[in-house]
Design goal:
- The protein has a seven-stranded parallel β-sheet. A two-stranded antiparallel ribbon has the order 2-3. A two-stranded antiparallel ribbon has the order 6-7.
- The model has no long low-confidence stretch (mean pLDDT about 95).
- The protein has one domain: TIM Barrel.
- It contains 16 helices and eleven strands.
- It is an alpha/beta fold.
Length: about 350
């Protein structure tokens, strides 16, 4: 890792000694930043922003210019993969993402194929390469994908959902079709993350945003087993550098031991799980990432700092063993005051630094 000016994030993920707890934020390049809103306006639309590698690079770097963050994350969207499968992604004003052609008919599901990431998702790989060059080895770059279950939810529901009625009906009624979607999507995600690694991503993360909506048995069958396959298929090294991976199931706190057993390097936690308890449960098998409540960023500066210290103290000392990457428990809210993000980042560094 020596070529990186700041490799604290990677060291923490691999449970190596660190001088302080590293911090980055899910959705750190986003609408809470006025400069992001300006660039998005220039792009014309969110999808155009994702597909223009120069603008994707620009917004990836914006939070790093403002805050002393320990990692950059590729600016993209989890739904680029189903879009490349031909489902026709679009963003309806005020409605979030939708698909023109959600999976309904058996023949569509049987015909589903994993896209070649270097062809159908070339724009993502180009963005990864450009961001790596622009970062100039200042901090590591994180690549990411949605989990097969989370992508399947959107692919079957046609967009976001409150009750997951269509996708859960399929899982219980026609598990053969559900598994077919998940198998193809698992192949797609594995290929996609490996292509990001080859293009320059130095760590990768799987976002299982909707895994927490599943029953205990269904989580294992329809989400975790497929993430385990992905982790097993990921490149662990590139150009002699170890590439750590993070698995994040929102609402997955009750399954920490099972997640730790799939071979991942780190588990992302939402704010409903106590970090110290989580650390006891997984021991030194994996690093933990999280888990500040994004809504706490709306409090006054002193309260933000106090809550950040509380999260760090609940994990306990980590300088000698690494093992903790500070993050939010979910993506940052678009109405977050940008000055409070600075308070958060600076407090994490100050409070965790070797005394």
């Amino acid at each position: 890792m020596s070529h990186l000016k700041n490799d604290t994030f990677l060291r923490a993920l691999m449970r190596q000694p660190v001088d302080y707890t590293p911090v980055w934020l899910m959705r750190q390049a986003g609408r809470y930043l006025p400069e992001y809103c300006e660039t998005r306006k220039r792009a014309g639309s969110f999808l155009d922003l994702c597909k223009n590698r120069h603008l994707a690079c620009e917004v990836t770097l914006q939070p790093l210019a403002r805050y002393n963050l320990d990692a950059a994350i590729l600016f993209s969207d989890i739904l680029t993969v189903p879009d490349a499968m031909g489902l026709g992604l679009y963003f309806a004003e005020g409605e979030g993402p939708r698909f023109e052609r959600p999976l309904k008919d058996e023949w569509e599901i049987r015909d589903l194929t994993a896209p070649d990431p270097n062809v159908h998702l070339r724009y993502v790989m180009d963005a990864v390469s450009e961001i790596r060059r622009a970062l100039d080895n200042s901090v590591p770059l994180i690549g990411f994908s949605g989990s097969p279950w989370t992508l399947a939810c959107y692919m079957v529901e046609g967009g976001g959902s409150d009750d997951y009625r269509k996708v859960k009906t399929m899982a219980y009624d026609r598990p053969d079709l559900m598994h077919r979607i998940l198998e193809v999507t698992t192949q797609a995600v594995t290929d996609y993350l490996n292509a990001q690694i080859e293009s320059g991503a130095q760590a990768v993360m799987i976002f299982d945003s909707w895994g927490g909506a599943l029953s205990h048995a269904a989580y294992r069958e329809f989400s975790l087993d497929y993430m385990q396959r992905i982790v097993a298929g990921l490149k662990r090294e590139h150009h002699g550098q170890r590439i750590p991976n993070i698995v994040f199931t929102k609402g997955g706190g009750q399954w920490l031991e099972s997640i730790a057993n799939i071979g991942c390097d780190a588990i992302g936690l939402d704010w409903t799980t106590d970090l110290g308890e989580a650390r006891k449960r997984v021991g030194d098998r994996v690093a933990l990432q999280g888990n500040f409540d994004p809504m706490a960023l709306f409090a006054n500066a002193e309260s933000v700092a106090k809550e950040a210290r509380r999260v760090l103290d609940s994990f306990g000392p980590s300088n000698d063993t690494g093992g903790h990457v500070f993050n939010l428990g979910h993506g940052i809210n678009q109405f977050t005051p940008p000055e409070n993000v600075r308070v958060l980042v600076d407090t994490v560094h100050e409070h965790s630094r070797r005394k």
